[in-house]
Amino acid sequence: MFICMLSQAIDRGENLTVLVDKTETLRSQAQDFKNKGTQMRRKLWYQNMKIKLVVFGILLLLILVIWLSICQGFDCTN
């Protein structure tokens, strides 16, 4: 009887060790996922910002072309 209980306690200790290892692995994977998510968010933010800057530049160029065609130059006082 005592040997059976001792065996169960040892098995339970081994199971706890396996559970602790799995928990540590899961925590590590969660941290990696969080870091990759942050990297992806930054990458997409920069990509979005580049697109916005290109569109803004094209709009400024279009406004400049319209301004120059209406005023026949930079002096629009005539």
UniProtKB/TrEMBL annotation:
The keyword Transmembrane applies. This is V-SNARE coiled-coil homology domain-containing protein. Pfam families: Synaptobrevin (PF00957). GO terms for cellular component: cytoplasm; membrane. InterPro entries: Synaptobrevin-like, Synaptobrevin-like_transport, V_SNARE_CC. The chain crosses the membrane at residues 51-70. It comes from the Eukaryota. GO terms for biological process: protein transport; vesicle-mediated transport. Involved in the targeting and/or fusion of transport vesicles to their target membrane. Keywords: Coiled coil, Membrane, Protein transport, Transmembrane, Transmembrane helix, Transport. It comes from Rosa chinensis (China rose). Residues 1-47 form the V-SNARE coiled-coil homology domain.
